[in-house]
Amino acid sequence: MRHKIRLEGFVTPQDAETQYVYLPFEMPAGARRVEVSYFYENQVTGAQETHPGNNIDIGVFDVRGAQFLRGGFRGWSGGARNGFFIERETATPGYLRGPLQPGEWNIIFGCSKISDPVVRYRVNVDVDIDPLAADGAAGEPRAPGMPRIAAAGASNGGGRWYRGDLHAHSEHSDGANTVDEIVAYTRQVGLDYFALTDHNTISHWDDLARLNDGAPLLIAGEEITMYGGHANVWGLEDWIDFRGSDSEKVQQLVTDAQRRGSLFSINHPDSPIPWLHPAVRGYEAIEVWNAPWRWFNEPALLRWTAHLDSGERMVAVGGSDSHCVPPAKMTQPNGPGEPCTWVYVEGPLTQRAVLDAVASGHVFISEEPTGPYIDMRADADGDGVFEALPGDALAVAPDALVRYRIKYRGPDGKHLRFFGKRGLVHEVTAPAEEHDFEFELRAEGDDYVRCEVRGFRGSPERGDVVHALTNPIYWGAW
Ligand SMILES: [Zn+2]
Ligand SMILES: [Zn+2]
After folding, report:
1. Secondary structure (3-state) at 226
2. Which ligand is nearest to the CA of 274?
3. What's the Cα-to-Cα distance from 435 to each of 41, 411, 412, 438, rounded to whole Å?
4. Are residues 352 and 389 in the same domain?
5. Residues 152, 14 share a domain
6. How far is the CA of 230 from the centre of ligand 1 (A)?
7. What are the tens digits of pLDDT across the range 262-307?
8. For the domain that residue 259 is a member of, what is the CATH number?
9. How does pLDDT run across 25-78, given as a tens digit for each residue?
């Protein structure tokens, strides 16, 4: 038996200001499958920034309600699909399978772009009802699978740098591949850990849990995808809301992430989707390197160093933001691991260990999993033990000499530049593909030292690019 619900109406540019529109409907008792399709006028046919028309995203909340932070989230596909279905045992990627509890559900529209004064829409909700099902066969939707927190990497006792990627997408949002295809690719390129961060959903976690049985260690992530900026959250145990429609709500999301022990990192903050919430505080990291090093990463680098120069300790991370791997058509030039975010972990490689390393700033970034590799350490007390890694803070006496030791593995001829609050404090051009060296700097007040490896990719006229960069080693009288 099929029960048909038709939701018709219109949205206006005022709706785009409040961003989200809710269309309640009644889920009948005995529902075994719900299938939703939607249509609206003058849909954009290309990138919404450059093409005329309207763009309406879609998702759904179940009987548990649609309230901010605590809604009964059941799925989101943004603008990637024209419809979806949910059953108890399966669902369209991006949506959470489980029981279809009777009562009020809500379609959510995200008004991404409304150009016309009035945009009419129609939503078809078709529900298959099993007449034999006990009525009100309710129950909580099955929680999506959690990736097991497994020891996937051997420890060498003293700790080492592990390669990974913190940002990528699958068919569970707007990516081209299944989770299986992406994880197989990350194995091929030798990643030790990998976070899949589909937009606004966690339906990909089931596959991560199934595949998390070796290298790479798979990490549960979600990219909070707001109309005023994107942010990755890692280490969640359940879905986190994405409806940060103003800075006050975004601040609540940051606080919510912290309360759950997860990490919040603002993504590609200057372009292509700028971060529009300068007043929000308390997030741990900034993605200064999104996709291959390009012009739009330079302002992100400046944004990060402005935080450092103001005395704030902020962690720089990279993210491939990969949306495709073979055999899918390659619509972007890089895959997972490009760039590669290296984390320093002692002991077993677990999700918690990776996230603790990120939170501590024990991180450097290189353009590929093969490098360049840059291990920077510091010795503050002159005992010959280089105890400090990037992210660490040294307590030093005023005017003390701090000694730095660098191990570089990468192309020769590249420029290793060291920066602090005073600007450029040291520079070395790598004379060989393996170059170990030390230098000293006098500590003056609270400061830091970080390293950037630059050179040309292609012709010099195209300008130089960053091949690798480290987080800072801080010092001061703390
Ligand atoms: Zn993004
Ligand atoms: Zn992304």
Report:
1. strand
2. 1
3. 61, 10, 9, 10
4. no
5. no
6. 5
7. 999 999 999 888 999 999 999 999 999 999 998 889 999 999 999 9
8. 3.20.20.140
9. 999 999 999 999 999 999 998 888 889 999 999 999 999 999 999 999 999 999
